[in-house]
Amino acid sequence: MWPPVAVELPERHEDTPAPGTDLPPHYAYCFGCGDRQEDGLHLRASVGEGQRIRSRFTVTEAHQGAPGLAHGGLLACAFDEALGTTVGNLLRRPAVTGRLETDFLRPVPVGTTLVIDARLDGVAGRKVYVSAEGRIDAEDGPVAVRARALFVLVELKHFIDNGRAEDLRAVAADPSLLGSRPVELNP
Ligand SMILES: CCCCCCCCCCCC(=O)SCCNC(=O)CCNC(=O)[C@H](O)C(C)(C)COP(=O)(O)OP(=O)(O)OC[C@H]1O[C@@H](n2cnc3c(N)ncnc32)[C@H](O)[C@@H]1OP(=O)(O)O
Questions:
Q1: What ranges does the record give for the region Disordered, renumbered to this chain (predicted)?
Q2: Rounded to an integer, what is the distance from CA 6 to the centroid of its chain?
């Protein structure tokens, strides 16, 4: 059963941009979306209809597991990012991945662009349920990967208490490293 508990499905946050709007990387050094991670995944997300966010991820030579094929762990990373950005942008509250499950249905060759449609499935207290499917090269392409996850809402303190001090200092010195954030920061 998914979600596994009774949930509410909140409206998306009033600050969520209009459908079709491209979303900036949430952190410049994020492996999933950051533009300062040369061999990162460089996922690009945009707002979909209702409780949906669409992301695109192009598999490069740096992402191989077997010759010419994407590594499954990196595909899981892409879905972690796509699902996390769905939670962050639709609820505008900080959250971290508690559990992530993936079904790999087809191999994904280097050069493929995965079109990942993620949606918010519901919220139960601090628990947020999201799911996604990734299609090969087009929004109606064959499904290659399905994923679902539980994110847990946390306070900003979670990142301040647990993040490495020099990285937190770098963000405080240059807040533009956080391209989008779930709450306004006042360092
Ligand atoms: C615009 C912005 C864009 C922002 C865009 C952002 C995109 C980011 C994308 C990347 C996201 C990541 O990779 S985040 C990084 C990877 N994840 C992490 O580092 C998280 C590490 N884990 C933790 O810090 C902790 O375990 C927490 C915070 C998840 C939970 O600890 P806690 O705060 O003490 O809460 P706890 O009571 O244990 O759990 C709360 C509830 O969740 C349930 N729960 C917790 N973990 C699990 C689990 N694995 N499976 C089932 N259920 C679980 C508990 O049973 C409980 O249910 P009940 O008793 O209430 O019923």
A1: 1-21
A2: 23
- Alpha helix positions (H), 9-102: 72-91
Q: What is the pTM of this model?
A: 0.97
Start-end of H helices in the chain: 72-91, 157-162, 165-173
- Classify domain 22-177 by CATH number: 3.10.129.10
Q: Rounded to a whole number, what is the largest CA-CA distance in the chain?
A: 47
Do the Cβ atoms of 55 and 83 come closer than 8 Å? no
Distance CA 20, CA 32 (A): 20
Q: Identify which of 23, 96, 153, 177 to mutate to test ligand 1's pocket (most ligand atoms within 8 A of the CB).
A: 96
Pocket of ligand 1 (CB under 6 A): 26, 32, 80-81, 84-85, 88-89, 96-99, 125-127, 150, 152, 154, 180-182
ipTM above 0.95, yes or no: yes
Neighbour count for residue 28 (Cβ, 10 Å): 18
The rounded distance, in Å, linking the Cα atoms of 8 and 37 is: 36
128 Cα: distance to centroid of ligand 1 (angstroms): 9
Q: How far is the CA of 96 from the centre of ligand 1 (A)?
A: 5
Pull the structure tokens for residue 41. 């995944």
Report H helices in 104-153.
none
